[in-house]
Amino acid sequence: MRRVALHNLGCKVNAYETEAMEQRLEEAGYEIVSFQEEADVYIINTCSVTNIADRKSRQMLHKAKKKNPSSVVVAVGCYVQAAKESLKDDPSVDLMIGNNKKIELIEILEDYFKEKDRIQRSYVLDIGKTREYERLNICKIGDHTRAFIKIQDGCNQFCSYCIIPYTRGRVRSRRPLEVVEEAKRLVEKGYQEMVLTGIHLSSYGMDFLEEDRMELLGLLQKLDEISGLKRIRLGSLEPRIMTEDFVQGLAGLKSICSHFHLSLQSGCDETLKRMNRHYTTEQYEQGCRLLRTWFFQPAITTDVIVGFPQETEREFLETVEFLERIQFYEMHVFKYSRRANTKAARMEGQIPESEKTRRSNVLLELDKRMSRLYRESFLGQEREVLLEEKVSVNGIDYLAGYTREYVKAGILWEEGLNHKLDTNRILTGTLKSMINEEFLSLE
Known about the structure:
The protein is of the alpha/beta class. Helix content is about 35%, strand content about 25%.
């Protein structure tokens, strides 16, 4: 029996695909071992969203070959798509498998093992011409309470800083029946919360033929009918999807979590235009108003890039003012990273790293203040918490989990008192106090 170790880099879509590959390998008779152990095969699902991600991908490939020089090292995914030519000269890599070819992993490995002269092999499609959704699926995941379901791949947006459309290809959607069937299988195994993920989730269904058209809201309505599915959480959404009809439709679903991640990137229209984002700050703010009209205290989270080429101090301050006005629950703050082969990398007016750091620190402090205010707004309110893990804070044990808004909360856990409580249980109680900056007590 061959031993295989997998390592995932990057986004939740990559994590889903790594789980799917692992399950296919198990079914084919491979023994799954930790990446820290010596294995016959090392599979690294790579990321290429930034130059740093490229470097981490290379490091993990070299680390794998160093662990066992006679092993078969397999580079999979986005970095393979972006750097297939340079990988041809990398002696650490035996097999290159691009996106939309992961489903053939077992066959590719078996063919490779049959060869006497095992020279490097490449299985990389012209991803921009691919129109089929890669039909990977899972029946379990490592998390005991929350399951991620990939429903979409590819992106047609072509933001000026982003290489993803070139590594993931154009929008391709998973058939609704397949999504529903996978969700039902996961519910049967005890998962109560599903997180829908994709490269550009808001584009779900737009590639279907007119007669087969079902967009994201229609899929959510189908999932909402599944008995035993308590929560549906959405991955990152495009701000323009937040129309009155869409938000009202979401509010009518019993399982939808009032936690919405709307990617912003900048609170300045001039910067958004240079980024080739397809909305204005006014449109974004209107989407937030709709969410707050139809949902009570919804959690709105976002991504922000600081130091984008030509971003002036005035533009940055416009962003700060906009963020304060919206009052986000959480922000993921990124310093702009120059990505080769993108339009933004060729722009004049690149911002010094020291200035990016200063601006990032300003937003991180703002994020900290807004996050605490949002969490404090729940004190005294009754909420349901899906318990996920036992944690220790200042030597005190708690069973902790998340509300529908993704606010972390927990209940005291004492041997002999709450010993019957366990993870994967939904508990309703009152949020009484702040245990620390990010954690509320449930009583």
